[in-house]
Write a structure and sequence with these properties.
Blueprint lengths: L12 E6 L8 H12 L4 E3 L4 E3 L1 E6 L2 E5 L14 E8 L4 E6 L7 H10 L5 E6 L1 H7 L15 H13 L8 E4 L5 E6 L2 H9 L3
Parallel strand pairs: 1-7
Antiparallel strand pairs: 2-3, 4-5, 4-8, 5-6, 6-7, 8-10, 9-10
Helix pairs in contact: 2-4
């Protein structure tokens, strides 16, 4: 029970404007999020009352990401997403607007989008079996690096410098975020299929 006690909590400064979203939430974002929920790759720890896993896409308006503590919602709704309009990794600050605050993993998503413009979709899930199977077999973050921090963003950049993701599946294993696995791609279908190959 204690191993996931750190899960789901926002570690960055969140400048949040609570208001209805002014942009369209694509149907495939809802579709793939619910498929991941059905597989229990995104969900909710009942005993801890906290959510896990998140999903995002990069648009011309900013990053659309699932909101913090929305893992229990199924089927997902458009009010469970927010738009990140600005972020500053070095200052540990995220600016977002929408019905909910941005996911606790937003800084990690932002770092991945920043290193490669071709990446337009990111999925972060939790699965102990997959995590153990892929740990150190795919690019893996430092065990001492906590999720949702500027340090994790730095780890993401290090992994992209050290590995050619064009020649391997687009997966990152979070050694310091137990059971945490990230996949990414040019769209959600690609990110989802990459993940399912190893599930």
């Amino acid at each position: 029970m204690t191993k996931k006690i750190d899960e789901g909590y926002i570690k960055f400064n969140c400048d949040w404007a609570f208001k209805p979203l002014q942009i369209n939430i694509p149907e495939d974002l809802l579709f793939y999020r619910d498929k991941l929920h059905e597989l229990k790759l995104i969900g909710h720890f009942e005993d801890l009352n906290i959510g896990y896993g998140n999903i995002s896409i990069k648009t011309d308006n900013g990053i659309i990401v699932s909101g913090t503590q929305t893992g229990h919602i199924f089927p997902i709704n458009k009010e469970s997403f927010t738009l990140v309009t600005k972020y500053e990794i070095a200052k540990n600050n995220v600016v977002c607007e929408g019905p909910v605050k941005a996911s606790s993993e937003t800084m990690t998503h932002a770092a991945i989008y920043e290193v490669n413009d071709a990446i337009k979709a990111i999925i972060h899930v939790h699965n102990e079996e997959m995590w153990k199977k892929l740990l150190h077999k795919f690019p893996t973050t430092n065990t001492k690096t906590a999720y949702g921090t500027p340090e994790m963003a730095g780890e993401i950049k290090r992994l992209f410098n050290d590995h050619n993701f064009n020649k391997t599946d687009n997966i990152i294993i979070m050694a310091g975020h137990e059971d945490g696995v990230i996949s990414f791609g040019r769209n959600l279908e690609e990110a989802y299929n990459i993940l399912l190959k190893h599930f």
